Amino acid sequence: CTGNGICKCRVCECFPNFTGSACDCSLDTTPCMASNGQICNGRGTCECGTCNCTDPKFQGPTCEMCQTCLGVCAEHKDCVQCRAFDKGEKKDTCSQECMHFNMTLVESRDKLPQPGQPDPLSHCKEKDVDDCWFYFTYSVNSNGEASVHVVE
């Protein structure tokens, strides 16, 4: 019973947190926990302590690696730029395309939210249309609401 149960009459009786005919399947989901606190990054199922990624773009031990995905920062750069500074590629379509997050302007980079809060947080540094750096954070709370903090 792979050390995870007791053999009685040629049948394994598994200890708690183990299952399978040889008690070789762990029910512990800790190894499947992604950095955002979700099981398999919300893109797979945890089977015997291993992620089975159901979204084919994502892979890795916790379904967090995506070779073809834009990063969160690059993905939201144009919308943050038009909402915060009224410029960039989406300036003319901003009100139609870029209202999917709550935005807060902050005075300086040290006023941006810091890691350690319950919601997953991305710190972003992107170049605007004038080749200047701008800084923002992007997070999504447990209700699925996106929140952006931008240095003014």
From TrEMBL:
Keywords linked to the UniProt accession: Disulfide bond, EGF-like domain, Glycoprotein, Membrane, Repeat, Signal, Transmembrane, Transmembrane helix
Gene Ontology biological-process entries: cell adhesion mediated by integrin; cell migration; cell-cell adhesion; integrin-mediated signaling pathway
Keyword Transcription regulation attributed: no
Annotated InterPro entries: EGF_extracell, Integrin_bsu, Integrin_bsu_tail, Integrin_bsu_tail_dom_sf, Integrin_I-EGF_CS
GO cellular component, one term: integrin complex
SMART domains linked to this entry: Integrin_B_tail (SM01242)
Signal peptide bounds: none
Domain of life according to the entry: Eukaryota
PROSITE patterns: I_EGF_1 (PS00243), I_EGF_2 (PS52047)
Gene Ontology MF terms in the entry: C-X3-C chemokine binding; collagen binding involved in cell-matrix adhesion; fibronectin binding; integrin binding; laminin binding; protein kinase binding
Keyword Transmembrane helix: yes
Integrin beta subunit tail domain ranges (all copies): 73-152
Regions annotated as coiled coil: none
Pfam families, A to Z: EGF_2, Integrin_B_tail
PANTHER family according to UniProt: INTEGRIN BETA SUBUNIT, INTEGRIN BETA-1
Name this polypeptide is given: ITB1 protein
Name of the gene this protein is made from: Itgb1
